[in-house]
Amino acid sequence: MSEAYFPVGPGLGMEENFLSLDDILMSQEKLPGRAESALPRLAVLLGQGAGGAESIPEGSKLEIPLWLAKGLHDSKRRIISVELPKIYKEAWRTVFSADANVVDLHKMGPYYYGFGSQLLNFENPENPEIAQTTFIARFRRIMDSSQNAYNEDTSALVARLDELERALFQVGQKGLNDFQCWEKGQASQITASSLVQNYGKRKLTEVDG
């Protein structure tokens, strides 16, 4: 029986995949900002329509969904300015650099890495530091845990991971499970992953072209 829905992975880096549920949910995350000019007919949308007001006056502080902030942001026309959420500012980056593995990323933001990549769409002097994330420091521990915690309760560990890290953890556990099934003769053969297969198809297409 075929699945009714085939999961679509999120985009990479600053690009979003609009068929991905993860990216759709991430685009709803809020950014602190400021109206650099009056914003007509946006008061209700941004929850600032008190007293029947329809427009947001210039200089107003805002909480803007990512998708709308990207649409309004224009480096030539000063419509809005966007600030860094506090979890990406220097104080938190200092905590990460001290020991990235103790941080509960899911509590801070379930799409920490994806949302952080989207922040690079906005001009900010701290962008180079934001791009140097804690991912590498945490990646080794996540993969080690996925390989060494087989048939153990990993709920406490997984609860602290953001969605990208959870996906990597699941891939690691699935790979270990498939390998053990193959060792026990419960699988006929080890097959290449879909990523490897797709890469091979692209290389063949390039050769034929």
Explain briefly what this protein structure is.
The chain has 209 residues and is mainly α. The protein is built from ten helices and three strands. It has two domains: 1-83, Methane Monooxygenase Hydroxylase, Chain G, domain 1; 85-187, Up-down Bundle (Methane Monooxygenase Hydroxylase, Chain G, domain 1).
Report what the structure shows.
This protein is mostly helical. Helix 7 (135-148) packs parallel to helix 9 (163-183). The protein is 44% helix and 7% strand. The radius of gyration is 22 Å and the shape is elongated. It folds into two domains: 1-83, Methane Monooxygenase Hydroxylase, Chain G, domain 1; 85-187, Methane Monooxygenase Hydroxylase, Chain G, domain 1, CATH 1.20.58.2050. 17% of the residues are buried.
Overall geometry comes to elongated
Which architecture of the largest domain does the CATH hierarchy give at level 2? Up-down Bundle
Mean pLDDT: 78
| Sheet of most strands | 3 strands, antiparallel
